[in-house]
UniProtKB/TrEMBL annotation:
Organism: Streptomyces griseoaurantiacus
Pfam family, one: SBP_bac_1
InterPro entries assigned: SBP
Protein name, entry field: ABC transporter substrate-binding protein
SUPFAM superfamilies: Periplasmic binding protein-like II
Keywords: Signal, Transport
Protein family: Belongs to the bacterial solute-binding protein 1 family.
Secretion signal span: 1-20
Biological classification of the source: Bacteria, Bacillati, Actinomycetota, Actinomycetes, Kitasatosporales
């Protein structure tokens, strides 16, 4: 079903791209729809697993009684969030004023004219923000969204079972030998390792991390030409493929998105986990069996630390919003110290303000902040193209087949390369 939808989107995109330049820009005539408009706004965003939204709504609404924000929470699954946004943009829904844009959706939303460029009267000051986050919100040299939360992958490990964090895959696996259940988490011992291996966006994240760690490159330096079929990529992908085959990754992880992974680690079923920083707040939460028994470290790789895939979310203003001036103020508000600090202290979300990573008080409380900053600064972006839905589909489908053992690593990469090529060619 997804494949059919992607094809339709890609087909329509060719025509839209040409028009995009004058679609959302208030100065290019005709389409100023709400650029100066003020009034109540709706902020559409993924499910608040971190408990930070009530603060944001209360703070904003107290200061803006005539321009209140209503928050619409979507699912916590990246693919479902995207489908919801695509549907509402296609319907030109003026009810979605401000939307959360995953870093990988920026190009598509911008190219289609669904979110307004933050230029001219919509200018946003980005000087205090982490450069990687600004880049993730930029398409073709123009800023289209306000960095809201960054994301870098981290390794979570059990300090009651391991002396220090492994820096290589070999060390990680060495720690598991004879101490973990193989192949399944239903045994009485924890399983060794899990990340996000269900067939959705998170699989692309995890596959890309494995591939990049061994020197593979999904696309070339232009950000879109397929280069994934290489021996380097095969070495990386094999870490995951062998994981399922040899049992150091439990088979249940084929159904894991972020939430299932964190729940498994939280209930003591995993020795090592790859996840985003938001997991810290959940692992320290009241139902956690591992509070005080886990550490956070950079991701391991084949020979020393690997690199994370760059994650994160930015806020865009819908081109169909009637209240874009209010929406812009809301974007400025979410960059504030108040909001960014609350996101970190309550939800352990990665701030976009550079200064927070060296704030002594925060670093004392969140000792992993320097590692997180490094993870974000060295993170590898996913391909930047308006045809990203087709590209990620190519990565997910073929990786998943290899992880399930339905195809070999070599064949999966060959098929992935062909599918990325046809996706970036426009359909
Ligand atoms: C996180 C990341 C996002 C990524 C998603 C995949 O939310 O911030 O960039 O696409 O995970 O599930």
């Amino acid at each position: 079903m997804r494949a059919r939808k992607v094809a339709a989107v890609a087909g329509a995109l060719g025509a839209t791209l040409v028009l995009a330049g004058c679609g959302a820009d208030g100065d290019s005539g005709g389409s100023t729809r709400g650029a100066d408009g003020r009034g109540p706004i709706t902020f559409v965003t993924g499910k608040d697993n971190s408990g930070v939204l009530p603060f944001i709504a209360d703070e904003w609404n107290r200061a803006h009684p005539d321009e209140k924000v209503t928050i619409k929470q979507q699912s916590d699954q990246a693919d479902q969030q995207l489908a919801d946004l695509e549907q509402h943009f296609q319907a030109k829904d003026p009810g979605y004023d401000v939307v959360t844009v995953d870093v990988v959706w920026t190009a598509e939303f911008a190219a289609r004219g669904w979110i307004v460029p933050l230029t001219g009267r919509h200018t946003l000051d980005t000087r205090r923000l982490l450069p990687a986050t600004v880049k993730s919100a930029t398409y073709n040299g123009t800023l289209y969204a306000a960095p809201y939360g960054s994301d870098g992958g981290l390794l979570y490990y059990r300090t009651d079972m391991v002396d220090s964090a492994p820096t290589t895959w070999k060390e990680l696996l060495g720690n598991c030998e004879g101490r973990t259940a193989e192949g399944t988490i239903t045994g009485d011992r924890p399983a060794c390792y899990a990340g996000q291996f269900a067939k959705y966006e998170g699989l692309t994240v995890n596959a890309a991390e494995a591939i990049n760690a061994t020197g593979g490159k999904i696309v070339g330096s232009d950000g879109r030409t397929a280069t994934v079929d290489s021996p380097e990529s095969a070495a990386g992908l094999d870490f995951l493929v062998k994981g399922f085959k040899d049992g150091y990754i439990p088979k249940e992880a084929l159904g894991f998105q972020e939430t299932q992974t964190v729940n498994a680690f939280r209930s003591g079923q995993l020795m090592f986990m790859r996840n985003w920083p938001y997991a810290v707040a959940i692992l320290d939460g009241k139902d956690s069996k591992v509070a005080g028994k886990y550490g956070v470290a950079p991701l391991p790789g084949p020979a020393g630390h690997g690199a994370s895939t760059l994650g994160g979310h930015n806020l865009g203003i819908s081109a169909y919003s009637e209240h874009q001036a209010t929406a812009l103020d809301f974007l400025r508000f979410i960059e504030s110290d108040t909001v960014q600090r609350n996101n970190l202290t309550v939800g352990t979300l990665a701030p976009v303000l550079t200064s927070m990573y060296s704030d002594p008080k925060l670093v004392k409380k969140f000792t992993y902040l320097p590692d997180l900053l490094k993870s974000i600064e060295t993170a590898v972006p996913r391909p930047i193209t308006p045809f990203y839905p087709g590209v990620t589909e190519a990565i997910e489908t073929n990786t998943y087949a290899a992880l399930q053992g339905r195809t070999t690593t070599a064949q999966a990469l060959k098929d992935m390369q062909a599918a990325i090529k046809s996706a970036t060619a426009g359909g």
